[in-house]
Sequence to fold (600 residues):
Amino acid sequence: MLRTLKILLAETKISMMASFQYRVQEGMALLGLLVESLVYLVVWTTIARAQGGSVGGYTEGEFAGYFIAWTFVRHMTTGWSPWWMEMRIRRGEFNTLLLRPIHPYFVDMGRMMGMKSIAMFTLVPTIFLLSLIFRPEFALIPWSLLTLLPALVLAFLLRYTLMYALAVTAFWTTRVTALFELWFAVEFFTSGRVAPLSVLPEWALNIANVLPFQWMFAFPLELLLGRLSPQEALHGFLMQALWLTGTAIVVRLVWRSAVKQYAAVGG
Amino acid sequence: MGASKALTIDVKELSKTYTVSERSGGLRDAMKGLFRRTKKEVRAVDTISFQIVPGEMVGFLGPNGAGKTTTLKMLSGLLFPTKGTAHVLGYTPHERNKDFLRQITLVTGQRNQLVWDIPARDSYELFKAVYDLTPTDFKRTVDEFVELLELEELITKPVRNLSLGERMKVEIAGSLLHRPRVLFLDEPTLGLDITMQRRIRRFFAEYNCREGATILLTSHYMADVVALCKRVIVIHQGHLLFDGDLSDLVRRFTGHKRIMVKPEDQSLDLSGYGEIMSRDSGVVSLRVPREEISKVTAKLLAEIPIIDLSVEDPPIEDVIETVFAEGDDAANA
Fold:
């Protein structure tokens, strides 16, 4: 465990060093995040205004709070695509990782942690600037903020592990992009990304409640905004832990046969 | 841990079959492939067996597609064998035991394990964590490799700024930082100039000497094999054709030797003494059956004035070509 942690930190450090080389790319990624959140922000504040001030329990100011916090939570919980796995397998680059006495899962995790840490240098001031412009309304509740970090870590781990489970199918198909597109569409509507869950119609909410996506996005976001009761927060953590445990078991079980299936390029 | 602890590598009737989709090409065939795919089984490695003892350096030869890389991948745990068994250091490679992975390395001409955008020295720090090296061991190994491979200037530059040869040197050093006991080298000098090839050969020979490491090497440059390996294993179309000393390979597969003769009179026709293979700067290369060598040599010395004469085995490339040609004949018979 300690050895894994050491490797994870070393990977994070390396990834941070490499990230410094790509300041423009990092800047573009941040810009992409900002544009997406600002589009939603403008759309939903306009709808709220048209509907007499609020939609789904969110006022204009609260929408501003939601989509500014959105930028932070989205940044913290994304960063890995099964496409990476597909590319590595098709190019035979996976060999290098398989030859190391560490599971590639931790290698990628370290790399993402590095990239995320570097992006914080630009993300935090940007969020501060957005807050000055859009005047968000939210409640900073001390217990809620204290539980934010574990909620974000679990949300990140859950999303990453689920993605990994999806990526592992590439060992059989060598193409996961189509499957990922389907995932992306469902996640888009049921995670709280396009709008707060409370504005969804009941049927969509019912679907969202049986899927894992809200626990990796809407839950930490609403916790940050102080919109959850202690009972709801506890329920959220429980759901995160359950989904994470289940997914981790699946990855562990499937991994061995996936590697067996792996046929490296060349003969 | 398995059996065969005394041997470093123990391969018994190892086979690997790939299933590949087959298509003759063209749009119509591509559309047909949407509904029905023709699969074909390709036997990349076919029931090969060999053993390698600790500290041995063995050349693994074969033409493109012979199954060399597939075998190396099975021995390093990247591929599962379809049939047969393989043990390396007593471990079954495809179980990918962490202790096994800590004791081997696979170096390929195309391998890219260093992070492209940062200096190799920083990537080495990562390997230090991955292989759990103590700071003292790590420093000692890096210093040693820096000296042997002349890396001083190279490990502080971003890898992307290095030339192919320079990159290969820092890659090789990175692959050996954990001082593996078994090295699988797959075309390690591919695309490098002669000087760089020699330096890398010298490095591997020195590493083998210092660490007592076992080395299995594939290379299209016969100079690599001649310089490093006393023993060679030849495979062709997945089958093992030869396993033994390089000198035995030459004896077994060529019934001829070469007499390199420089006559005083360069206009003389020497075709009566043997098949003329080449003429270069007055030196005529004659191909003569092995059992007639002494007779022909004596005859040449007695009959014509000679400046220089030597008897040589045919170039190893020619021998290998003969071996592969016989392999083709056997496969087509």
User: Anything to note?
Assistant: The longest strand of chain A covers residues 54-55.
